[in-house]
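R.M. (postdoc): so does anyone remember the format we settled on? I'll just put the structure tokens first.
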């Protein structure tokens, strides 16, 4: 048992150490551009990645907010169980995100998909819709070279094929980016206070 735990920890540390800071910076910059333009960030995922998507919403919408600074408008279509299950049951599970996004998505918005495989049909359909609308498409995915690589403008690859490690790092990426946004907001608020 201890050997299993040690091996998992080693995989987690290796993937975290190999995570691209350039990719993280590019993802942050795009999210911040959308925030400053008044656009909306939509975060998608299935299973454990769906839970991570909701976690992103909490951390960016609440944790990163500072009085007097523009708030991140961030939503996870996963979180409305009624519409999600209605679409899955009555239309197709492949359409549970794209059908919701058709009601809201604009060219100034952004779609981020969290996935292990990077090939979930519902996420791919959402990215295809985003491409037609002109919204920016990003993905944070495991090392499977899935379909989201070819229908996203920005990909942050988590260098692992262990679903647990990938999902762990979905949340780690959220924490790094949202805590950095809070720091940016705090510095901006302090600068405004010193000018007053």
């Amino acid at each position: 048992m201890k050997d299993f735990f040690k091996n998992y920890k080693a995989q987690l540390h290796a993937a975290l150490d190999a995570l691209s800071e350039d990719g993280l910076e590019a993802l942050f910059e795009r999210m911040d551009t959308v925030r400053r333009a008044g656009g909306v960030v939509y975060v998608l995922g299935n299973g454990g990645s769906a839970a991570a998507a909701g976690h992103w919403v909490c951390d960016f919408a609440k944790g990163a907010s500072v009085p007097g600074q523009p708030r991140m408008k961030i939503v996870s279509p996963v979180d409305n169980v009624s519409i999600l299950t209605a679409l899955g049951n009555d239309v197709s599970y492949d359409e549970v995100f794209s059908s919701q996004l058709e009601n809201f998505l604009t060219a100034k918005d952004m779609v981020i998909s969290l996935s292990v495989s990077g090939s979930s049909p519902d996420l791919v359909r959402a990215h295809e819709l985003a491409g037609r609308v002109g919204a920016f498409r990003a993905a944070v995915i495991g090392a499977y070279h899935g379909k989201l690589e070819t229908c996203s403008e920005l990909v942050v690859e988590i260098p692992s094929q262990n679903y647990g490690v990938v999902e762990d790092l979905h949340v780690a990426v959220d924490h790094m980016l949202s805590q950095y946004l809070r720091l940016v907001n705090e510095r901006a608020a302090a600068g405004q206070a010193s000018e007053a």
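R.M.: ...and that's the designed sequence above, right after the tokens. Also worth knowing: Strands lie at 40-45, 73-75, 110-115, 136-142, 154-158. The first helix runs from residue 2 to 18.
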